[in-house]
Specification:
There is one protein chain. The protein has 245 residues and is of the alpha+beta class. 18% of the residues lie in helices and 42% in strands. It is built from four helices and 18 strands. The chain is elongated, with a radius of gyration of 20 Å.
């Protein structure tokens, strides 16, 4: 139970980018829609097989909750204190240690829906591709951004690191993977933040199905799924291209 709860938290937390969320517990499933304070990532995560009381759980300080969970052993009991429409605290115990985590008022949680047009390009993620992206990110010093660029009609290039400056090739790592579908109009490259993408990959490393939807030049949607385990979706806005890119 502890590991599943931590996995759920890390999937929406995206390496501490998302701190406050409203979580719904229903039918042995935890669900939340979230947005980071800087609007760099938003999305939804569902974690299946967590059997706790049903209702709304409003978390203001996710980092504090994770620190408290890490001091407990793997086999824990979870009790929600208060009423289902507004629990006041989360009681966690492993038989030897008991912690009480205070929940917040639902009114302080920001809600925002992601609405984008249909994707212009779709490609699947594999474990090998994700591992290579993380290794490429770690290998580079200048790794703030990556670029998604069509490579004909059958493949897409994911360029980790700076793409081009003043028309000159820069120090970077290029990964190539097959495209599932691509509209003819999608010819421009899309620039994204590497660190956010890397953190999302790591948080969903046990996925069985992964897909990237490139939504014209505006954003990408990343979806992960593991049957009977979890499903997650993330929307990342594109970074404005420099004139010299």
């Amino acid at each position: 139970m502890k590991n599943k709860l931590i996995n759920f938290i890390q999937r929406y937390n995206v390496d501490d980018m998302v701190k406050a969320v409203s979580v719904t517990s229903k039918d042995k499933t935890l669900s939340t829609k979230f947005i980071s304070d800087d609007n760099q990532v938003m999305g939804q995560v569902n974690e299946y097989g967590i059997d706790i009381d049903e209702g709304t759980i409003c978390i203001r300080d996710t980092d504090q909750l994770l620190r408290m969970l890490h001091i407990l052993n793997d086999d824990i009991n979870i009790d929600l204190i208060g009423e289902a429409d507004q629990y006041t605290s989360l009681a966690l115990s492993d038989g030897n240690i008991k912690v009480n985590f205070l929940l917040c008022d639902p009114s302080i949680i920001v809600h925002k829906e992601a609405r984008f047009s249909d994707p212009g390009m779709i490609f699947h993620l594999t474990s090998a591709f994700c591992n290579n992206f993380v290794k490429a990110y770690s290998a580079l010093i200048d790794n703030e951004f990556f670029t998604i660029e069509p490579d004909g009609q059958e493949n897409v290039k994911v360029i980790v690191g700076p793409h081009k400056r003043n028309g000159q090739v820069q120090m970077n790592v290029t990964l190539t993977t097959p495209v599932d579908s691509m509209d003819d109009f999608l010819m421009d490259s899309v620039k994204m933040r590497s660190g956010v993408f890397k953190d999302i990959i790591i948080a969903n490393k046990d996925f069985e199905q992964g897909v990237v939807h490139v939504i014209e030049s505006h954003a990408i949607k990343i979806s992960f799924h593991k049957p009977d385990g979890f499903s997650s979706q993330y929307y990342l806005p594109a970074v404005q291209q420099d004139e010299n890119d």
